[in-house]
Amino acid sequence: MAATLPTSFLLIMALFSCLYPMPSHSSDPDPLQDFCVADLTASPSVNGFPCKAASAVTAHDFSSAALSGKGNTSNAFGSKVTAANVLAFPALNTLGVSMNRVDLAEGGLNPPHTHPRASELDIVLKGKVLIGFITTGNVYYSKVLTRGELFVIPRGLVHFQRNVGKGDALIITSFNSQLPGAAVLPTTLFSAKPSIPDGVLSQAFQVEESVVDDIKAKFGS
Length: 221
Ligand SMILES: *[C@@H]1O[C@H](CO)[C@@H](O)[C@H](O)[C@H]1NC(C)=O
What we know:
Blueprint: H1 7-19, E1 79-84, E2 98-104, E3 109-114, E4 120-126, E5 128-134, E6 140-146, E7 150-153, E8 158-163, E9 169-175, E10 183-184, H2 185-190, H3 198-205, H4 209-218
Helix pairs in contact: 3-4
Bound molecules: 2-acetamido-2-deoxy-beta-D-glucopyranose.
2-acetamido-2-deoxy-beta-D-glucopyranose is lined by residues 72, 74.
């Protein structure tokens, strides 16, 4: 019977619905069953993978050694991210959680990146690490953390981790998504295939195209 309500009442209702924060649904959808160990051989559907037959699931499916090995940090960034997402650990399918380990050599950097589908909670297990993120309003929040300390990165925001201590550092990062995704800004922009036109990047960063070419060359593009 909304048509019979006074316009002023409807306007007030509309105003209140804007003022009250809506409950947030920012993680993966809830599962519809106890477990759904992913059948990675099937094509991904819109949301995750089909389930392996329950009769074929064993205790072995629910454990993983995906993060047990130290990542090889002998590369330009001095860092290595090892993922325990649904692709590495199929039992995470539909459960809305995953983890990475981030190994950082002395001075190593996990370069600025975003996870489009998850917030991230980090715990430093070894070393001294500068972790920072930037809001969509361009405010930079950061902290130097040591063993046992936590830092949270809100979903989708650009962030990085840098080893600022002596020796190696190790961080475990956890996500409220089985497959958080990562857009690593330097590689996204400078080693996309096919390549982003030089003119776009030189205009975006206000530098000569030769500078863009230099950066692209460093990423093998
Ligand atoms: C680490 O990576 C470097 C560069 O790719 C490679 O030369 C080296 O053999 C790797 N080390 C190990 C232990 O795999």
